[in-house]
Specification:
Number of strands: 8
Largest sheet: 4 strands, parallel
Shape: globular
Mean pLDDT: 93
Oligomer: single chain
Distance between the termini: 29 Å
Structural class: alpha/beta
CATH topology of the largest domain: Rossmann fold
Length: 365
């Protein structure tokens, strides 16, 4: 959780002192000193778990053609008349079960704020007042458009846009970038921009994952029979159409296995969160954990390397639905290893990625 100092730093978006250019007329608009913005982006979250908050959020999310690419003539009537009539109730109940009631927000929002505050501190240690760090959400609030505008008003003439997805997918990184570039169309003075590519094989990211697993295993009486790396799924069709997500997930698991010094039999890649009738990337986590239990692997651990922060898909789907599938099939001990969240090794990995992508724009102090 943020302390008072970090919280104040995160919300301090006021521009540095703006001044008229030296040789300009007295009535010339004041211009703030030039800075570089670092805008972190995550998936998004509903404002609350009530019906209408959930409906607004789900409508925005499920209307994104990057997420659901069926013809709108077919999809929108189904979405508006059937799915959005029923799903806000079930999704709202799921969010309520994990909601941060003390802060009045979802865990994803809380964690993203914590991550941003720590990255802001790290960037200011490196670059001082040359940088401004903030976050936005692809769906819901705070919107990408509002944060791009805030950075421009604060004097950011360059913006590094960082989708917090280790692995590239059209339905995650690409749609975040789409929204960022759409936001720039509303700016009279557009900043120079860069987008951060996927970091699925970054050594510091892999090491942070490995450390989190080693810490968890060290606290257990005996080692689990297998570690399941559960990645968010996408339709198999996306792979066949050229999306690199599947291959990047497989490489992360391989690099993690090598870093841990494990055998192939000790770690497995699966995919969760299947939606709709078509085939998705396999094996499906919910089915695979049941198969492992029936095979005699009664003690398993599950981690979620594709998620930079715990959210509904990890706290509710993995820790409840997938756990239940494992136990109903005869599994005895299920351990969920939390996402990297604001762990110091994770913050260092993300900061290192930012440093690499600021090269040529800024030099460390």
């Amino acid at each position: 959780m943020l302390d008072a100092k970090s919280s104040a730093a995160l919300t301090d978006l006021a521009p540095m002192e703006a001044k008229c250019p030296i040789h300009a007329d007295a009535d010339h608009p004041k211009v703030p000193p030039a800075r570089t913005g670092i805008l972190l982006a995550n998936l998004g979250t509903p404002d609350n778990y009530d019906y209408w908050s959930m409906r607004r959020y789900l409508n925005e999310f499920l209307s994104d053609r990057r997420v659901i690419d069926y013809s709108p003539w077919i999809w929108q009537p189904l979405l508006q008349l059937i799915i959005l009539t029923k799903r806000p109730f079930s999704s709202g109940a799921a969010y309520k079960s994990i909601w941060n009631h003390e802060a009045g927000e979802s865990p994803l929002m809380t964690i993203t704020k914590d991550q941003t505050a720590k990255i802001k501190e790290a960037m200011h240690d490196r670059y001082g007042d040359q940088v401004m760090v903030d976050f936005c959400m692809r769906y819901g609030n705070p919107s990408t458009k509002s944060k791009v505008r805030a950075m421009r008003e604060a004097g950011c003439q360059r913006i590094l846009f960082f989708p917090l997805y280790p692995h590239y997918a059209g339905a995650t990184s690409a749609t975040a970038n789409d929204e960022f570039f759409r936001s720039l169309t509303h700016e009279k003075w557009q900043p120079a921009v860069r987008t951060v590519p996927a970091y699925f094989d970054n050594p510091k990211y892999i090491d942070a994952l490995a450390q989190s697993i080693e810490r968890t295993y060290a606290e257990m009486d005996s080692k689990p029979d297998i570690l399941v790396c559960s990645y968010h799924g996408v339709p198999k069709r996306y792979l066949m159409e050229g999306d690199p997500y599947h291959c990047q997930c497989q490489k992360t698991t391989r690099l993690l296995k090598e870093r841990l010094g494990w055998a192939d039999t000790e770690i497995k890649t699966t995919f969760q969160s299947r939606f709709g009738p078509e085939e998705w990337l396999k094996p499906y986590t919910v089915e695979e954990v049941a198969r492992l239990a029936e095979e005699g692997k009664k003690k398993i651990a599950v981690c979620a390397p594709a998620f930079s922060a715990d959210c509904i898909e990890t706290l509710e789907e993995i820790n409840e639905e997938i756990k239940e599938s494992f136990e109903e099939a005869g599994g005895e001990e299920f351990t969920y290893i939390p996402c990297l969240n604001d762990d110091d090794a994770h913050i260092e990995a993300l900061s290192s990625v930012i440093d690499d992508n600021l090269a040529g724009w800024l030099s460390r102090g």
